[in-house]
Design goal:
Elements lengths: L1 H60 L8 E2 L2 E2 L11 E8 L2 E9 L5 E7 L7 E6 L16 H7 L4 E3 L7 E5 L2 E5 L19 E6 L2
Length: 206
């Protein structure tokens, strides 16, 4: 009788030990699964960040990228004589008079914009004006973008009207965006600018 009791106790202990082992295995499997999901999520985020970085590097390498100082291989301060391709001397007529400019053209002869000689040193490149819709800034700002779309991607900008042909410009860093909205008010109320007013030119002021 005593032997049977001992045997029964041993059976119970063995069953309890197996149950604990199965529970521990299940817990470890669950933990491993959670860790795997977390690792996969982190890897996905890292991959997306890397792809975005690569895309931006490729965008900046394009001749159509508008930086704070250059466009289409032409930088403010370059000697004009050093630019041997894609430019053509011209006369610009506007409300302020006639100005010497250099048209910027693509390899196929398409008009992309123009630049002024520097006012202090006419041998060098001054303000650059971009007119093509193919060009873009780091924030993906392009000619044709609306004022509402512009507000969605940048902040800390100023908007001023002008007495010269009532031109309205958005000032952001070393860039200016001319709108097809006209006002002679310098301290312009943003609420007066239609959301669908479009960018017609992008200027690099340097």
């Amino acid at each position: 009788m005593f032997k049977k009791l001992i045997f029964a106790c041993l059976i119970l202990c063995l069953a309890f030990a197996c149950a604990n082992e199965n529970a521990a295995t299940s817990s470890n499997d669950s933990s491993d699964s959670e860790e795997a999901v977390q690792t996969e999520s982190e890897t996905t985020d890292e991959t997306a960040d890397l792809e975005e970085k690569i895309d931006m590097e490729a965008a900046k390498a394009s001749k159509y990228f508008i930086s704070q100082t250059s466009f289409f291989g032409i930088s403010i301060g370059d000697y004009i004589s050093s630019i041997t391709e894609n430019i053509e001397k011209a006369i610009l007529q506007d409300g302020e008079g006639n100005f010497d400019v250099y048209n910027i053209k693509s390899e196929k002869g398409k008009m992309l914009g123009y630049f002024y000689p520097d006012t202090q040193n006419p041998d060098k490149v001054g303000q650059i004006v971009i007119m093509t819709k193919e060009a873009y800034t780091e924030e993906k700002i392009k000619v044709g973008m609306t004022f509402k779309e512009l507000q969605d991607v940048i902040s800390n900008f100023e908007v001023h009207g002008s007495e010269t042909e009532s031109r309205t410009h958005v000032f952001y860093k070393d860039l200016m965006f001319r709108l097809d909205f006209y006002s002679s008010e310098y301290d312009l109320d943003l609420a007066k600018i239609p959301a669908d007013a479009k960018i017609t030119k992008i200027m690099i002021t340097g």
